[in-house]
Design goal:
The complex is a heterodimer of chains A (about 140) and B (about 425).
Chain A (H helix, E strand, L loop, with lengths): L11 H8 L4 E5 L20 E5 L3 E7 L16 E6 L7 E4 L13 E9 L7 E8 L4
Antiparallel strand pairs in A: 1-2, 3-4, 3-6, 4-5, 6-7
Chain B lengths: L4 H8 L5 E3 L9 E8 L10 H15 L9 E3 L10 H8 L6 E3 L7 H14 L5 E9 H7 L12 H6 L8 H16 L3 H16 L13 H6 L2 E3 L2 E2 L8 E10 L11 E11 L16 H12 L8 E4 L4 H11 L7 H4 L23 H4 L6 H12 L11 E7 L3 E9 L2
Parallel strand pairs in B: 3-4, 3-5, 10-11
Antiparallel strand pairs in B: 1-9, 2-8, 2-9, 5-8, 6-7, 9-12, 11-12
Helix pairs in contact in B: 1-10, 8-11
Classes of the chains: A mainly beta (about 140), B alpha+beta (about 425).
């Protein structure tokens, strides 16, 4: 139930892209607007939706640290978050944060995508786009 | 005078991250004339249906009616074990037609049921309507058979993009919202604490509250371990068994009942863009109460400052705090400061700068019956028979919530 299924053609490309080390979101081929979550067609212009790759920079909208077992998903603690990609500002991605020990998340902090193997308590491990602090550059 | 949809729209305003559902004006058309409840408990072994029937019977008797007088039934769709007309007829031994709506019960429908009932009464589909909500989640949780988080796995987008990151169930959503509120407005844990502390204080002097014997100080709260930052268990609703019901009829027929009628003045319903996915909500420091409340105030021709007592859907401390902001009691972001100094306590009336809130203890400390007990408590407040009675309460509002939707019901004492 935690491991994403690849049977849903509407959502599976996200996870297939992650396997290839790419962060992708769905967008309208005709009006170029990002449509998240994916739908059968563009809700604005009815155009066809395609997947596009993002650069992987984002900022942290918000976060929580799960301290006590609440859902049987992962060993605690872990840090679910919502991030907004720099190059897809209409998209809010649910993800996980990985920070160096001792560092606390802070809303609006700059982030960079990383591809990590997540190991749920039940079901198969899988590669997921997650986010890490972005070094100032 | 009845206002048109366009008039209501103009008064309620428009927003860029959600909208008000266009509810037609039903001001003063419907009254609540009877209320009934079961005992509220942890795991009781009772079924949702059995509890619903008990609450319905109590509400009908409280209205001075007989089971055969009821010709309308409203329940919440998608919640297991709710009553059907067949259940009703079989239990009460009646045979008449019963108009039936799944747009009732609790959560947002605890408010909007008054609007739906008004339309049914107008259309002569029903005259005495009972609205009921029942839940056995405490019993179900014990047996591992059901919980409020059940629907996440069955929703394809949540299953694909939220479950794989462990962002579920509901406490994690609103813990995430709470951090943003703290970040943008400087809301502190000590400020947030005043929400559960105020409601617990009310529960401690309310015989129907599950947490009536459990006192809590600020120190107790701060000493509790984190569940999901910044939430402790005390920021999250209980899981309960129980049922509540109320009877509605046309306001013009309400004068004959045994109690002072409670009249629905205004109803609002709001929805976020991108519903039902609150991960995509464009303003996570607010709730769809933002859209519902102005519509209800416009319909009622009232201002927020006229309210004497409120009951706010408090699935989490932050959702209550944000809804208080979104109703307009203070500016967005000032809620943390607003809820200090006993402002939510029943002893601090509006004339002293307070706004008594969740005087029964709310979902956090009374019972998690998803808002039906909130409305029942407001009816008692307006009748003047509440345990934590607000002095001279004449106008009340219920703020309902289902994450992507919010609702508002403005209630007045007397015809």
């Amino acid at each position: 139930m935690i491991t994403p299924e690849n049977s849903n053609t509407l959502t599976a490309p996200f996870w297939a892209a992650a396997e290839r080390g790419q962060l992708q979101v769905s967008c309208c081929e005709r009006c170029a607007k990002d449509i998240w979550y994916p739908q059968e067609s563009c809700p604005i212009c009815s155009g066809e939706l395609v997947w596009r790759s993002l650069e992987g920079r984002a900022r942290l909208l918000s976060w929580t640290v799960v301290r006590r077992q609440i859902n049987g998903a992962f060993d605690v603690p872990y840090t679910p978050a919502i991030v907004i990609p720099d190059d897809a500002p209409d998209v809010q991605l649910v993800t996980q944060l990985f920070l160096p020990k001792g560092q606390s998340p802070e809303c609006d902090m700059p982030l960079q995508v990383a591809f990590r193997r997540l190991e749920p308590l039940q079901g198969a491990a899988f590669i997921a786009p997650v986010f890490e602090p972005r070094e100032a550059s | 005078m009845t206002q048109s949809i366009n008039q209501l729209k103009q008064r309620a305003g428009s927003f860029d991250w959600g909208y008000a559902v266009e509810l037609e004006d039903v001001r003063d058309e419907v009254a609540i004339v009877g209320i009934g409840e079961t005992e509220y408990t942890g795991a009781s072994g009772r079924t949702a249906k059995a509890m619903a029937l008990e609450a319905v019977a109590a509400a009908i008797a409280d209205a001075g009616l007989k089971p055969e007088d009821i010709d309308g039934l409203m329940v919440s769709m998608g919640i297991a074990g709710q009553l059907t007309p067949e259940d009703y007829r079989e239990h009460f031994g009646t045979s008449g037609d019963i108009w039936f709506s799944l747009e009732g019960g609790a959560m947002i429908w605890g408010a909007t049921c008054a609007h739906t009932a008004a339309q049914a009464i107008r259309a002569k589909q029903a005259s005495n309507i009972v609205n009921v909500f029942s839940v056995d989640w405490a019993t179900a949780r014990k047996s591992g058979s059901g919980s409020p988080g059940d629907w996440h796995a069955s929703e394809p987008m949540k299953a694909a993009f939220e479950l794989p990151y462990g962002w579920f169930p509901q406490p994690l959503y609103f813990a995430t919202f709470a951090h943003r509120h703290m970040h943008e407005f400087g809301t502190t844990p000590e400020q947030l604490a005043q929400v559960p502390l105020s409601f617990r204080r009310h529960a401690n002097t309310h015989s129907g509250a599950v947490m009536r014997e459990r006192r809590m100080t600020l120190e107790d709260y701060l000493d509790r371990p984190m569940l999901a930052d910044p939430f402790r268990v005390e920021d999250c609703c209980l899981i309960s068994d129980g049922a509540g019901a109320f009877v509605m009829c046309a306001a013009e027929r309400a004068a004959d009942g045994p109690h002072v009628p409670v009249v629905a003045e205004g109803v609002g319903r709001g929805r976020i863009n991108g519903a039902p996915y609150i991960s995509q909500q464009k303003n996570i420091t607010a709730t769809p109460q933002t859209f519902a409340a102005p519509w209800a105030f416009a319909m009622a021709d009232r201002h927020v400052q006229e309210l004497d007592v409120i009951a706010v859907y408090d699935c989490f401390s932050i959702t209550a705090l944000m809804q208080i902001e979104d109703m307009g009691f203070c500016k967005k972001g000032e809620g943390g400061d607003f809820v200090q100094n006993g402002r939510l306590h029943f002893e601090r009336p509006r004339s002293e700068g307070g706004i008594p809130c969740n005087t029964h203890g709310g979902l956090l400390s009374h019972a998690y019956v998803l808002g039906i007990a909130h409305v029942i408590e407001l009816v008692r407040q307006l009748r003047g028979t509440a345990q934590n009675q607000v002095k001279d309460a004449k106008l009340a509002a219920y703020a309902g919530f289902t994450a992507d939707e919010g609702s508002t019901l403005i209630l007045r004492k007397g015809l």
